Amino acid sequence: MRTRVAIIGSGPAGLLVGSILTRAGIDNVIIERRSRDYVLGRIRAGVLEDATVQLLLSLGAGTRMMREGLPHHGFAIQFNGEALRINIDALTNGRSVMVYGQTEVTRDLMDLRADSGAETVFEAENVTLHDFDRGRPYVTWQKDGFARRIECDFVAGCDGYHGVSRASVPAAAIRTFERAYPFGWLGVLADVPPCDPELIYAAHSRGFALCSMRSARRSRYYIQCAADEDVNHWSDQQFWDELRRRLDAKAAANVVMGPSIEKSVAPLRSFVAEPLRFGKLFLAGDAAHIVPPTGAKGLNLAARDAQQLANAIVEFYLQRSTRGIDTYSQSALERIWKVERFSWAMTTMLHRFEHFSPFEQRMQEAEFRQLQTSEAARRVLAESYVGVE
Fold first, then answer.
1. Active-site annotation, residues
2. Residue 264, SS3 per DSSP
3. What average pLDDT does the segment 140-147 reach?
4. HSE on the CB side for 128, CA within 13 Å?
5. DSSP secondary structure string, 309-321?
């Protein structure tokens, strides 16, 4: 087998790279170690920046999003019971975000790919990358008991934090930066109406809480918990009671309780790999970086990576220019670190850190007071929330 671009991973980053390349007439194959159903079963966040919305629309993958998604023009920050609405519409000259689950984005992109006829290999075992740092790369794997091989010009490593792409890079050629936070998020998905039409980010002495939603009838709630929390120790009632303790009186009264349809604990970390290019291998999405979900940036950052990388490859084939692929790593990392800073700052301001001194706790409060009293501070926050240019 031969293709121009071998894409490792069929999450949003890999699917977006494939969609852009296919639209430009550049053949590509996606190789995914999991099944289609497994990929679609992942529960992820879904606050889409305007740039991500426009990208999906331009590819023809936004019809259902525009019908079922929820446009949001603001969100609330609560700090020990005090509430502040961030009017992102007014603060960013009319920009907004769209609430639409990552699972649905993935489904729409998979359907788009299936309609295009582009090939995706699911349940590929022992995926191995070869010669990407010299000569012509190729990828091998096993499927249904048979060895497979595909030769390519480029490899797009979009297979996540635990994937084979970054792990294939020699240790001496890559540098990583990481911060593991000393807590996680206990999340519950339930078919109940949200407690507020907009997201609520709540800082409380008992720990952080987030009120989010997937639709007007399905809510996604989170509470800060221990990093090693056992989800089996939490009944639904215990979760609802603890969530309401961390919200102001109005939001707590509006919480509609119901049986959970999914309950899980997610760790929080910040992570960046440098560089993002290794010969003919390029990293994108969670293979390149992880952000804590506090700022709702993971999917959006992956989409920007995918768009930039795919456009660089299109430029190489259609314009015979290496400018895009030569500058991909440096320019993508500049954007990535800005988003990492925003996500780190939101996480630091809103969560309870056991090791924080009284001084550091006062700094958290001072950050909130600055937002209360300064439109300029709110504008900076809103601009980062809707997307770093």
1. 72, 201, 293, 297, 385
2. strand
3. 96
4. 10
5. HHHHHHHHHHH--
